[in-house]
Amino acid sequence: MIQRNSANSTYQRRIPRIIHQTWKDTSIPSRWNLSVRSVRKLNADNFEYRLWTDNDMHEFVREKEPDVYANTFLTYSHNIQRVDAFRYILLYHLGGVYIDMDAGCSKSLDILLDALEALDPQAKHLAALPETKPNGLSNDFMISTKGHPLFAELVSHLSIFNHNYIVYYLTIMLSTGPLFLTINERLFSRSSGTISVRIIEGKAYSPLLLWFAGGNSWHGRDAQIIKYIYEVPRTLQLASIITAFLLIFFIYFLYSCYRRRSVR
């Protein structure tokens, strides 16, 4: 399907051919040399490549979203939250393709972008997000036109979701990570025919277009617990989630009681 649509030359290109990647500085870890090299080499003819460092990230957000920068971006407890938030801000203002360092290319990403533009020839705003199993979306590979309303909502909702959710991994996932993206995409209104958001099945791009070397260095021990809850069958998943929330509520209740007694 991707190859057939990419042959259609009647549509207009709307997605900027820019590939964005982020790292704390310009010294990329050796474990990602192959993946980054494949991204740059296989897309060199049709894409601009941008590597954004932490300093670049701060400068960009401070300039483009000064209120978000001062009131939300700087208040995050963990740098990975700033990196996640930066992805949404970056794609909103510049558009293009965001791809994690641990993702390598098997073919040029132009094939996928051509297909997306051919599928929605009348849409002014295009976005594509990868699904993750068993449900939900991932923010490790995102595609968007500049100024997409979904990414405008993601940026505007960063402050709303900026809370400590007790568990480190859950705080990351829900404040800026895949859970944040999934919830906001589900709530996003596609009332206009000029707006397109497509969910890409894993088999549609991996390993046909992308392969993964492995990353997620920020995951902690609590990630294994939540990952287990996320992957078990739906009935057990629901029971686990309810139990987890009840436990969190109980801990919060005990903490509130302790605070009130301390005040007395």
Can you characterise this structure?
The chain is of the alpha/beta class and 264 residues long. The protein folds into two domains: 2-212, Spore Coat Polysaccharide Biosynthesis Protein SpsA, Chain A (Alpha-Beta Complex), CATH 3.90.550; 232-263. Helices cover 49% and strands 14% of the residues. The chain is built from twelve helices and eight strands. The strands form two sheets. Strands 2-1-3-6-5-7 form a six-stranded mixed beta sheet, with helices on both faces. It has a two-stranded antiparallel sheet with strand order 4-8. Strand 1, helix 2 and strand 2 (48-52) form a beta-alpha-beta unit. Helix 3 crosses helix 5 and helix 5 (79-94) packs antiparallel against helix 7 (149-156). It is globular. 33% of the residues are buried. Residues 1-9 and 217-226 have low confidence and may be disordered.
In CATH's first tier, which class of the largest domain applies?
Answer: Alpha Beta
CATH topology of the largest domain: Spore Coat Polysaccharide Biosynthesis Protein SpsA, Chain A
**In what order do the strands lie side by side in the largest sheet?**
2-1-3-6-5-7
Computed over alpha carbons, the radius of gyration is 20 Å
Total domain modules: 2
State the order of secondary-structure elements, H for helix, E for strand. Answer: HEHEHHHEEHEEHHHEHEHH
Q: Which outline best applies?
A: globular
CATH architectural name of the largest domain: Alpha-Beta Complex
Structural class: alpha/beta
Overall pLDDT, averaged? 83
Strand count, sense and closure of the main sheet?
6 strands, mixed
Q: What is the straight-line distance between the termini? A: 68 Å
The number of E-state strands comes to 8
Content of β-strand: 5-15%
Low-confidence stretches: 1-9, 217-226
The helical percent reads 40-55%
The quaternary organization reads as single chain
* Count of alpha/pi helices: 12
